[in-house]
Amino acid sequence: MQHVPYAGRARAECLLGNEVSVIAAHLSSVEEHAKAGRVRLIAAAAEKRAPAMPDLQPSLRWCRAFKTSVWFGLWGGKMPPELVIKIHGDVAKALDLSENEQFFKTTVSNGSISRHANSASSFKAS
Fold this sequence. Notes:
The chain is 33% helix and 0% strand. It is mostly helical.
């Protein structure tokens, strides 16, 4: 197997076009291709199975050293602390809406993303 570095990430299109034979990608970017039979999912790089794809084994069952995690955050330029607190509060309210919680559980992450309520200061550059 030869490593092919990409600026960013290897897309499912590279796999579908036979440019590469294996990619590591977030489930949401390859799920539709797997359901259509265009690609075969080997394992989820996780500790446990994704609720929406219970037949897909987690990689930790066969390789203890292979797991991943993803996290998202918002950053901005220099802003007054009051604005940072307001943005943080507004985003938290939006993420807490039941329709957004359902969206992340079923559409985007297949239940593999969980929200951690961090404070705005926890992202502050050190």
